[in-house]
Amino acid sequence: MKTIYKIALLLAVLAVIYFFYDFDKNRKAGKENIEKEDKVIFNYNPDDISALRMNTGKDEFYAEKDRNGRWLLKKPFEDGADELTISGILDKVLEIEATKKIKPEGGDLSAYGLKTPSSGFVFYNSDLKPVVSVEIGEQSVVTDVVYIRINNEEDIFMVSPAIKRAIMHSAYEMRAKHLLQIPSNEISRIEITVGGKENYSVKKYKDLWEIVSPVKCKADDKNIYGYMNLLNNVVVKQFVIEKATKEDLKKYGLDVPEIKLAFYNNGGKVFEASLSKEKIGSGMYAVSNMRDGIYYIEESIIQNLPLKLINLRPLKIMPFGTADIEAMQLKNKRGEIFFKKDPRGIWTGSVSGKSINVDILKVKVLESIVTNVAAKKFVEGPVSDLALYGFNNPQAEVTLFGAQEKKLGRFIIGKHDSEGLLVYCKNGDSSDVALIDSILFRDYLGREPEFYFLANN
What we know:
Layout: H1 2-39, E1 51-55, E2 60-65, E3 71-75, E4 79-80, H2 83-95, E5 98-102, E6 119-124, E7 130-139, E8 146-150, E9 156-159, H3 162-167, H4 171-174, E10 187-194, E11 198-205, E12 208-213, E13 217-218, H5 221-232, E14 238-241, H6 246-251, E15 259-265, E16 270-280, E17 283-288, E18 294-298, E19 327-332, E20 335-341, E21 347-351, E22 354-356, H7 360-372, E23 377-378, E24 396-401, E25 407-416, E26 422-427, E27 434-437, H8 438-445
Antiparallel strand pairs: 1-2, 1-6, 2-3, 3-4, 5-9, 6-7, 7-8, 8-9, 10-11, 10-15, 11-12, 12-13, 14-18, 15-16, 16-17, 17-18, 19-20, 19-24, 20-21, 21-22, 23-27, 24-25, 25-26, 26-27
């Protein structure tokens, strides 16, 4: 009986202890929650902010969203605004918490630097009504806090200096840094002028790009989209002149630019960019019809743009990969040899119907050459007489076959060029005539069949 009594007494004591522990825990949690709520001084959704006005103490800015949700800078000049900078401002201000709230004696704001605030900001909603208005006063040297007043209320809040850093941006930081933004999926025509003389025209037919001037041939789709993407990522390093005159364009080498690119959509709207011949340090000057000024950008950008027609063309002679090839027939002045992959994917060979053990590595090199070799340059203009380039009597040709020995195409080698360093080459199904390194012909395409034999044949 005494044992049961002791157990019951122990349970009662534990229950009392738990009650006071739980009560104290909830009381502290409630207090902490109240304190946290007191610290939160800004309550808005950044996505709902449609305009902002800022005074950094050095500059004044006003920006607002257009109907498409893009931020535009209206003051101190009209230009596109840097979306990331503005998003950062809205997010960082929202994180600011109060460390203390003060009621100034007699409403005197001068002791806190708020009678004539050094800086401040206002965020507006879509109706351009203020959502939050903040005046920023002095920063305490002793406690390292900043005094602010919100929405003209009597209370003053002590907050982290981070609130000043959140809005302390230069004119450069507030402006959009992109030279232009090309909607690549909407573009159907591109006009390129190099040095004011050479003109290239490219058009999109259905989903494929073609060069229409000065020659008519296929364009390299990957390169075309790559150029648009490259220009979309050009970063303005310096805003040189706000509104350029003809004299300004001449001064900065933009009256006859090194390269001018114009991108047209189906509606005829054009997106233009011109890059100067003048090089200053590691940069160059540029203009765009989408912005009014002259801008300084990295010079390296021009090295990746299509300054020559060959930069717009697909350089591979044959539009196949090694995975597409199941058989090849090499024919040259020294004979013929036929190669075929066995069921295991291993190359075998035959000459005049007789099976031959072949050097698999050499055959793979030949396969790689005909499927991957790129043109060094092309014969410009229409090719009316193939005999001029030796294709009436080829030095070598490789016929490519796919599954079930379906003919895929012919890789044809014509004669050497005048210097003997290159040979004319073409895809049998294309009118384009290219030049490739003659070493490829010498070392593999022009070799006798025995070159590909194994020694034990």
